[in-house]
Amino acid sequence: MKLWSLLGNSQRLDGGAMFGNAPRAVWQKWIAPDADNGIPLACRCLLAEDLDGRTVLFETGIGAFFEPKLRARYGVLEDRHVLLDSLAAAGFSHEDIDVVVLSHLHFDHAGGLLAAWSEGAAPGLLFPNATFVVGARHWERAVQPHPRDRASFIPELVPLLRDSGRLELVDGAHAKALGEHVRFEVSDGHTPGLLLAEIVADGGGVVFCADLIPGRPWVHLPITMGYDRYPELLIDEKRAFLADKLARNVRLFFTHDSACAMAAVARDDGGRYSTRDEHAELAAWPLAA
């Protein structure tokens, strides 16, 4: 099996929102803000080639579906669909993808499912040959979003996925489309029913951390985002998650870290978690299944 880290469209979001109740004097040491308090964020996807014979894409990033006004509001930097370019650079197209795994359906993780915005055109679903894997409980949240995060969902996406005939809702550790080669666990701290997907491999696999741990600064247990629904629960989930991944030598894959795609877990004598063996990008990175 080979892994690629693929960049999608990037964002600049408010640093205070991204670091919750951590003061700027603390978080600016990790990521320097601009004059408007914005920090750079990637929307990075993970591609696995020959995952039991399948080509699997973990998430699609924010994409380019926003009209120009909303693109500016949400800090999306590029107007083209960057993920499609990244796929092409790695030798793939969206038609080659057999399975798309979506941790959740917030627009910065699922917007790349849609074609780039074009004036007067209705949203169109890409990846015509893929099964779309979504957590069953999170699907319920997307169908009937809470006012707190309603703006994070794409209203047109739910019917497009449902009507595709290729939607698989997961309620357990495995998906039919992936078998036992991908193991799921559920997190509720950021949004109910978020799927954390681990590619299982001898000697330690790779787990897509999604918004449980958006990047290296958030490995530190007390650090959460203002966007998280239940920050205290998220911290408890993160503590158990990191202890498990450290014990089993499972690497962390980060979607929003602008400088690091993957790293191993470390913990010091005081119990504080950090990262080691960091990779800025993956290009045909071998993983023994």
Based on the model shown, name its key terms.
289 residues, Metallo-beta-lactamase, Chain A, 6-stranded mixed beta sheet, 8 helices, globular
Description:
With 289 residues, the chain is of the alpha/beta class. The chain has a single domain (2-286), classed as Metallo-beta-lactamase, Chain A. The protein has helices spanning 15-18, 24-27, 68-73, 82-89, 107-110, 136-143, 157-163, 231-248; strands at residues 2-7, 11-14, 38-41, 44-51, 54-58, 99-102, 131-135, 167-170, 182-187, 194-199, 206-208, 251-253, 262-267, 273-279, 285-286. The strands form 3 sheets. Strands 8-7-6-5-4-1-15 form a 7-stranded mixed beta sheet. A 6-stranded mixed beta sheet has the order 9-10-11-12-13-14. Strands 2-3 form a two-stranded antiparallel sheet. Strand 9 and strand 10 (194-199) form a beta hairpin.
List the topology elements.
Layout: E1 2-7, E2 11-14, H1 15-18, H2 24-27, E3 38-41, E4 44-51, E5 54-58, H3 68-73, H4 82-89, E6 99-102, H5 107-110, E7 131-135, H6 136-143, H7 157-163, E8 167-170, E9 182-187, E10 194-199, E11 206-208, H8 231-248, E12 251-253, E13 262-267, E14 273-279, E15 285-286
Parallel strand pairs: 5-6, 6-7, 7-8, 11-12
Antiparallel strand pairs: 1-4, 1-15, 2-3, 4-5, 9-10, 10-11, 12-13, 13-14
